[in-house]
Amino acid sequence: MQFSLFESLNLLGTFAFAVSGVMKAIEKEYDLFGILVLAFVTAIGGGTIRDLLIGQGSVAWMRDNNVIYTIFLAFFLATVFFNLMKRFERWVTFFDSVGLAIFTIIGIHKGMQFHFNEMICIALGTITGTFGGVIRDVLAGDKPLLFHKEIYALACIIGGSIYFFLRASDRLENFAEIICCIIIIAIRLLSLKFNISLPKIHVKTSEK
Amino acid sequence: MQFSLFESLNLLGTFAFAVSGVMKAIEKEYDLFGILVLAFVTAIGGGTIRDLLIGQGSVAWMRDNNVIYTIFLAFFLATVFFNLMKRFERWVTFFDSVGLAIFTIIGIHKGMQFHFNEMICIALGTITGTFGGVIRDVLAGDKPLLFHKEIYALACIIGGSIYFFLRASDRLENFAEIICCIIIIAIRLLSLKFNISLPKIHVKTSEK
Amino acid sequence: MQFSLFESLNLLGTFAFAVSGVMKAIEKEYDLFGILVLAFVTAIGGGTIRDLLIGQGSVAWMRDNNVIYTIFLAFFLATVFFNLMKRFERWVTFFDSVGLAIFTIIGIHKGMQFHFNEMICIALGTITGTFGGVIRDVLAGDKPLLFHKEIYALACIIGGSIYFFLRASDRLENFAEIICCIIIIAIRLLSLKFNISLPKIHVKTSEK
User: Fold this and answer.
1) Does the model's ipTM exceed the 0.85 cut?
2) Which of A101, B177, C41, C110 is most buried, with most CB under 10 Å away?
3) What is the mean pLDDT of residues C59-70?
4) Cα gap A150→A16, rounded to integer Å
5) Which Pfam families does this UniProt record tie to the protein (chains A, B, C) (predicted)?
6) Distance CA B8, CA C144 (A)
């Protein structure tokens, strides 16, 4: 078994996503099974929804043991060494951003493979990167963080748009993936560092 | 590109459903991305669940740019002209009822195309018409309105039943769709006007 | 039409799951349509998610009238004779455990039919048995009971593992299904009787 860089980064992202599921489940005082399920849905939820929408037959992770073992590893480590994980939270956030970038690229590729137009491909990339977290929050009984805090999906959308822009250029075509990834990671980390979030629409409460 | 009456009404309904997603997201203080996602899931959620249950390959809206642009338009208009939309709430409610009727018919047709029996076809019509709102409410962290307020699904069920009844008759076969639509719209608007809702089962609290 | 023992037990389980959906909906003061939907999603939700993940075309219950009529019957009886149902709660719990066992076996069989490995088959069995309840709780606006109360999924996982263990043995191969069922029912009922639940991870609140 030989790992490409791409596959390694994918598993790193899967690990980080699963850890965020474990954290959320522990915060909600879920039991061990609840923790395991939240680790899983956070890590594979986005890809699952993508595969369902595309209608490609069985969803990808069910045939991919590496992904499954990675999630079990994350479940085990994050549950046993919860306090240690907390201390390395910065690293988890960094891996999480790597996962966001890789998952977006994977989703875009899959969309292209099924001949969807650019807009749908970017949407599939964004769904792959972000909807695991949405399912995690719904199953935890929370309003999805994605919809009211932090810049997350926007990083995927911008990164994905730049990806298609670069692919159309002669010079940078071969670097489109890597540049797209770097942009997504950069937007995510910078928006966290400077505490930037998307604007909301405020309405007078008299209108309810 | 030529629009049939049917297609136009479908887009009108899509628009109204998307607007109701925007309204809900703004009420919940979601950010711009959250508003966009709720506009989408409200408009295409019902049809997506229908297509997933049928297992027809990729879901319908992913190949239908008119639907996607209509949702973006609704997102843009309802976000920018929020207060204006509020003032025209009656029209939005009317369009919403039109959407409910059209979506029900589309769902029934799709069920027939896949040779499901009448009961399942009516269920698919009802799901197409109503489950976008259910996903909207779940993602907004609310109990689905559909399950405890207003007559909504019942309009689809009655309309759908009458549709199959009319199809079996010699005289009215050609008018089955239009009569079904009018009945759904009428039930919905009248139940709103007279504040009629479905009965609930009340239990003594001592039984928890 | 001839019923096998297996089919009868399946319908018994479907009935009990639907009743638990009705109970939850009434507790939440949902209207008649809400009660019907919760009866349905609790009874067929797990199998639906399994079929979607496998990507087998249309989901199983849509072609199975016996399941649909059983759910309608449960809806009718549990709504009309709510107080009576409450008094026979023990029986409903017992039937519910039978359903859990049968659904697990059905899910495992389906996984084997599609040539998934043992781990995925057990996961599919567990999903078939438990995720109807998860959807029920999400649609009722609750945190899924499955994740923080009672032993439920663990029974499926242990039963499923023992099933594959028995299949590998020469002597007990033919009894694998029945032993698996009995083990699942026993674990479920004993854990209820002795009030055993899965451990949770407790963290100091200072760490949030």
Assistant:
1) yes
2) A101
3) 90
4) 17
5) Gly_transporter
6) 41
Rounded Cα distance between B20 and A208, Å, is 14
The answer to whether the CB of C145 falls within 8 A of the CB of C133 is yes
Q: Which two tokens stand for residue A195?
A: 């505490």
B40-53 b/e (C-beta count within 10 Å ≥ 16 → b):
bbbbbbbbbbbbbb
What DSSP character marks residue B142? S
| pLDDT tens sequence across C14-31 | 998 999 899 889 888 898
- The alpha-carbon gap from B166 to the nearest alpha carbon of chain A, in Å, equals 34
The per-residue pLDDT for range B21-66, each reduced to its tens digit, is 998 898 888 988 999 999 999 999 999 999 999 988 888 888 888 9
Longest dimension (CA), chain A: 63
Chain A contact probe: residue of C58, C118, C124, C147 with most A CBs at under 10 A: C147
Chain C residues touching residue A58 (CB < 8 angstroms): 53-55, 114
Q: How far apart are CA B30 and CA C179, in angstroms?
A: 51
Residues of A in contact with B86 (CB under 8 A): 207
The residue with tokens 């540049």 is A179
**Residue C3 has what pLDDT?**
62
Read off the DSSP letter of residue C60: G
Q: Are the CB atoms for C117 and C125 separated by under 8 Å?
A: no
Residue B13 is which amino acid?
G
DSSP H or E segment with residue B102: helix B89-113
- For residue A200, what are the β-bridge partners? B31
> Is there a contact between C67 and C11 (Cβ–Cβ < 8 Å)?
yes
Tokens of C138: 């999400």
Contact yes or no for B139 and A138 at CB 8 A: yes
| Cα separation values, B145 from B130, B175, C61, Å | 10, 32, 26
Three-state DSSP at C200 gives strand
Residue B5's alpha-carbon distances to B8, B11, B152, B167, C54, in angstroms, are 5, 10, 24, 21, 38
CB contact under 8 A, A138 and C138: yes
Q: Is the dihedral of CA B31, B36, B37, B38 positive or negative?
A: positive
What token pair was written down for C135?
Answer: 């959807």
d(CA B48, CA B57): 11
Angle (nearest 5°) at CA B130 between B124 and B132: 105
Token pair recorded at residue A179: 């540049």
The C-alpha angle C53, C57, C60, rounded to 5 degrees, equals 80
> What's the farthest any 2 CA atoms get from each other in chain B?
63
Q: What is the DSSP string of B15-84?
A: HHHHHHHHHHHHHTT-BHHHHHHHHHHHHHHHHHHHHHHHT-SS-GGGG-HHHHHHHHHHHHHHHHTHHH
Smallest Cα distance from C77 to chain B, Å:
13
B11 and B67 in contact (C-beta within 8 Å)?
A: yes
Residue found under tokens 């083990």: C183
* For range A20-25, the mean pLDDT: 90
HSE-CB at C88 with a 13 A cutoff on CA atoms is 14
